[in-house]
Design goal:
Layout: E1 7-13, H1 18-28, E2 33-40, H2 46-53, E3 57-60, H3 69-81, E4 87-90, H4 99-104, E5 109-113, H5 125-131, E6 136-143, E7 153-160, H6 167-190, E8 194-196, E9 202-204, E10 207-208
Parallel strand pairs: 1-2, 1-4, 2-3, 4-5
Antiparallel strand pairs: 5-6, 6-7, 8-9, 9-10
Helix pairs in contact: 1-6
């Protein structure tokens, strides 16, 4: 029996790329993915340097060079497709994607969001969780749909909100878990265990998954 070839993955970033680094580390540790390219809408995104250090192709497509989202996303799609990825991951890509772009990658476009979706879609999730008096917070990996942070949730990790937390300390605790669950889900997809069903739900190992929520996961 031949071994499954690593799945080519394109990552989209806008900033530091710590989740990208988690995927790179997981690939080096044997996760069956191959980061084919890292694309940013910002030339100063440190994640590009992370990619270059590991010999991963990089590209910059500056959204400020385009008159509107449709024009930008059309060129972004052409750029991504040039790498023939089996999966596209958003790793801190701070752009709202057009419905046509999302539809093109239906079922092979993932995002990680720093909240327990459907709570706190959008920005400033940690501060909003604190202001709401939440006792736990976390992160969610989901398939991307045209609804902002509204796609079906695949996996979540929960962390407690501790007395004395501020947005920064809570964000750091959540980020540790992001670095665990994003490679986990990418691995499931690469192994052929995870898919987006015609019913709009994630299916894992032949069973529909509705925001699978394990206990808080260790980053060890």
């Amino acid at each position: 029996m031949s071994e499954r070839q690593p799945l080519p993955v394109v990552a989209l970033i806008s900033g530091g790329g710590s989740n990208l680094q988690a995927l790179i580390d997981a690939q080096l540790a044997g996760l069956p993915i191959r980061l084919a390219a890292v694309i940013s809408n910002r030339a100063d995104a440190f994640g590009l340097e992370r990619a270059r250090r590991h010999g991963i192709a990089t590209a910059v497509l500056d959204h400020r060079d385009y008159p509107d989202r449709d024009a930008y996303d059309a060129d972004l799609q052409r750029l991504i497709d040039g790498y023939d990825p089996g999966l596209v991951v958003l790793a801190g890509f701070m752009r709202i994607l057009t419905p046509a772009f999302v539809a093109h990658y239906r079922g092979r476009l993932l995002n990680i969001h720093p909240s327990l979706l459907p709570k706190f879609r959008g920005l400033h999730t940690h501060q909003r969780a604190l202001e709401a008096g939440e006792t736990e917070h976390g992160a969610s990996v989901h398939f991307v749909t045209a609804e902002l942070d509204g796609g079906p949730v695949i996996l979540q990790a929960r962390v407690p909100v501790l007395p004395g937390d501020d947005a920064a300390t809570l964000a750091a605790r959540v980020l540790e878990q992001e670095h665990v669950i994003y490679p986990t889900v990418a691995g499931w997809f690469a192994e052929g265990r995870l898919r987006l069903g015609e019913d709009g739900r994630p299916w894992l190992d032949g069973t529909p998954v509705d925001g699978f929520q394990p206990p808080a996961m260790s980053s060890d």
